[in-house]
Automatic annotation (TrEMBL):
Cofactor: FAD; (6R)-5,10-methylene-5,6,7,8-tetrahydrofolate
PROSITE patterns: DNA_PHOTOLYASES_1_1, DNA_PHOTOLYASES_1_2, PHR_CRY_ALPHA_BETA
Keyword Flavoprotein: yes
Organism listed in the record: Solimonas marina
Reactions the enzyme catalyzes: cyclobutadipyrimidine (in DNA) = 2 pyrimidine residues (in DNA)
Binding site for FAD: 227, 239-243, 380-382
Organism phylogeny: Bacteria, Pseudomonadati, Pseudomonadota, Gammaproteobacteria, Nevskiales
Molecular function via GO: deoxyribodipyrimidine photo-lyase activity; DNA binding; FAD binding
Residues covered by the Photolyase/cryptochrome alpha/beta domain: 5-134
PANTHER family given in the database record: CRYPTOCHROME (PTHR11455), CRYPTOCHROME CIRCADIAN CLOCK 5 ISOFORM X1 (PTHR11455:SF9)
Gene3D superfamilies associated with the record: 1.25.40.80, DNA Cyclobutane Dipyrimidine Photolyase, subunit A, domain 3, HUPs
Protein name according to UniProt: Deoxyribodipyrimidine photo-lyase
GO biological process, one term: photoreactive repair
Length: 484
């Protein structure tokens, strides 16, 4: 009986065994496989992974290796240029094929195209698979043959194209060559911070496939039925909190779909909630669709006229940007969000919109500054989602918010954090204030501040900008673009 040479399974952002079509295809075609992860951040420049992302990656790789070892395999770790590392591994193992799951960022598309061509010229088979999306970005076009720029018709077109709900089971056994090549130690990748700023993330998250599956099951059991309404309230635990797991491919959109639909089956209220979960996953698909078709958008507005918007200059906004990053703007809901981000690597989506609006509209600081900060501090720093979110709030991207939409942080706090529970949890300086005062302490009566022993400007800053005046400044700036 002829034994086929092993295949290399190149894990990237598909760090799971369940519902992994790439791994399934390699196992179906080869007697043995060699699982590998290559740390090659330079190939993703200028959007190399940020500090929070690399923290999650460290723990996710450890979890994947643990899962693989339970099947009789293990994860090899290499570092450096991806093509060089793959060629070395091919030489060491005699592999005749490389399998990977597709990525959709401009830099990784170009890298993977070059690697595929080079390996095929070497006589090595290359197989790439979709393991991250319901539909490939190039498969959906408008009636005119153009990419979609508006979510609603995109979602309408996507739904009938969604694949059948089939989940690949995790293999119980993964055969590997008798002699496995050497691997770097995980610590050698240097993914964890040298200074222990990650304690809040450690206390909040469980990276890895098991953590992802547990989070999806817990959400379906505890929050499905509350999601549609509750997801807008940051003090409530009614969001999925699956975004980091989805970004690293520890769980697939199909698995989330299966979890919520299975739990909701036959219950109208839950089925309605499940449809809203899928719609939010549809926004994730839309973001990747846009990034694929408009690769310039991480740096440039989708609508070119907004490149002329008269943003403030770095020399003028440096102090305000630092205050925003540190959660010291004097606007409680904004500061709460930025502190949650710094501590946990995550921020509630409603609050993301509020802090982004404050930066771009009230402070008139370019959205790219906010996108870069989120990129470094978010555990779910996904280039497609990050770009879509910031351009939406700035009003210059697909499905853009009207230029005149400026989130009033005080009104938003009153509506979505009425009891100031979220604010108090992240801005403890205000914990003794009643809700209305906690939403806008600079408007509180002196007696209320005195009773709380709060000295504005000392214990907690005064707002760095006048909300009404800065709103008008933003409207004037955007009106000039509209007129032009």
């Amino acid at each position: 009986m002829t034994t086929r040479p092993p295949a290399i399974v190149w894990f990237r952002r598909d760090l799971r065994l369940t519902d992994n079509p790439t791994l399934a295809a390699a196992l179906a075609a080869h007697d043995t496989v060699v699982p590998v992860y290559i740390d090659d951040p330079d190939s993703e420049a200028p959007w190399t992974p940020g500090g929070a992302t690399r923290w999650w990656l460290h723990h996710s790789l450890a979890a994947l290796d643990e899962r693989l070892r339970a099947t009789g395999a293990r994860l090899l770790l290499r570092r450096g240029d991806s093509l060089t590392a793959l060629r070395a591994l091919i030489a060491e193992t005699g592999a005749d094929a490389v399998y990977w799951s597709r990525l959709y960022e401009p830099a990784t598309i170009a890298r993977d195209r070059d690697i595929k061509q080079a390996l095929r010229e070497d006589g090595v088979e290359v197989h790439s698979h979709n393991a991250a999306l319901w539909c490939e970005p190039w498969t959906l076009k408008t009636g005119a043959g153009d990419p979609y720029r508006v979510f609603t018709p995109f979602w309408r077109a996507l739904q009938p194209q969604m694949p059948a709900l089939h989940i690949h089971r995790a293999p119980q056994s993964i055969p590997v060559p008798k002699r496995m090549p050497d691997s770097l130690a995980l610590q050698a990748l240097g993914l964890r911070p040298k200074i222990a700023w990650d304690l809040g993330m450690q206390a909040t998250w469980t990276p890895g496939e098991t953590g992802a599956l547990t989070a999806a099951a817990d959400f379906a059991k505890a929050s499905l039925g509350n999601y549609r309404e509750g997801r807008d309230f940051p003090a409530r635990a009614d969001t999925t909190r699956l975004s980091p797991h989805l970004h690293f491919g520890e769980i697939s959109p199909q698995q989330v779909r299966a979890a919520v639909q299975r739990h909701a089956a036959g219950q109208a209220r839950l089925e309605d909630d499940a449809s809203h979960v899928l719609r939010e996953l549809g926004w994730r698909e839309f973001a990747h669709h846009l990034l694929f078709h408009y690769p310039q958008t991480p740096e440039a507005p989708l609508y070119e006229k907004f490149a002329k918007l008269p943003w403030r200059q770095p020399r003028d906004y440096a102090a305000d940007l630092a205050a925003w990053q540190q959660g010291r703007t004097g606007v409680p809901i904004v500061d709460a969000g930025m502190r949650e981000l710094w501590t946990t690597g995550w921020m509630h989506n409603r609050v993301r919109m509020i802090v982004a609006s404050f930066l771009t509209k009230n402070l008139l600081i370019p959205w790219q500054e906010g996108a870069r900060w989120f990129w470094d501090t978010l555990l779910d720093a996904d280039l497609a989602n990050n770009t879509l979110g910031w351009q939406w709030t700035a009003g210059c991207g697909a499905d853009a918010a009207p230029y005149f939409r400026v989130f009033n942080p005080v009104l938003q706090a009153g509506k979505f954090d009425a009891e100031a529970a979220y604010i108090r949890s992240w801005v403890p300086e205000l914990s003794a204030l009643p809700p209305d005062a906690a939403h806008a302490p600079w408007q509180a009566k002196p007696a209320i501040l005195a009773a709380a022993r709060l000295r504005l400007g000392t214990d907690y800053p005064l707002p760095i900008v006048d909300l009404a005046a800065s709103r008008q400044r933003a409207l004037d700036a955007y009106q000039a673009i509209k007129a032009g």
